[in-house]
Amino acid sequence: MDTRAAADAYRNSTIENAPPIKIVRLLYEGALRFLEQAQRENVEDPEGRFFYLVGRADAIITELRLAIDHSVDAPEVTRNLERLYLFCEDELGKAGMERSSERLPGVTRILRTLLDAWRHVELEGQAA
């Protein structure tokens, strides 16, 4: 097995065995990474990766929204989280239609705030 294959196998194993909260954190980090890369792309360049990167971030946000457990004892929290995800998805759709990166910083701010909250929850869980 070559070094790259071994690294990929290790990464896949680490993710598959990760606690759910770590997976959520990794998804946020991935979406943010895609948005940061998209902001550096030229939206007018037909060969550019802007739409691909925005689409990847949007797919992650959609998966996070679909994974919300509405059966928990915090219906207001889950409704608000779903609304934030829907807003982000809408903003990314508009960014694509407008061929503009102007909406990306707002989505990035929301995701960073949510990521910080999940990190806090993760740390509390580790301390318990």
Task: Please supply descriptive tags for the structure shown above.
128 residues; mainly alpha; 5 helices; globular
3D structure, described in words:
The protein is mainly alpha-helical. The chain has a single domain (19-127), classed as Four Helix Bundle (Hemerythrin (Met), subunit A), CATH 1.20.120. Helix content is 77%, strand content 0%. The protein is built from five helices and no strands. It has helices at 3-16, 20-39, 50-66, 75-98, 104-127. The protein starts with a helix and ends with a helix. The model has no long low-confidence stretch (mean pLDDT 89).
Itemize the secondary structure elements and their pairings.
Elements (H helix, E strand, L loop, with lengths): L2 H14 L3 H20 L10 H17 L8 H24 L5 H24 L1
Helix pairs in contact: 2-3, 2-5, 3-4, 4-5
Determine the mean pLDDT.
89
Number of helices: 5
Q: Which stretches are poorly predicted, pLDDT < 50 over at least 5 residues?
A: none
Structural class computed from helices and strand pairing:
mainly alpha
Q: How many β-strand stretches?
A: 0
**CATH hierarchy class name:** Mainly Alpha
Shape: globular
CATH architecture: Up-down Bundle
CATH topology: Four Helix Bundle (Hemerythrin (Met), subunit A)
| Total domain count | 1
Instruction: Tell me the radius of gyration.
Output: 16 Å
Find the CATH superfamily.
Flagellar protein FliS
SSE string: HHHHH
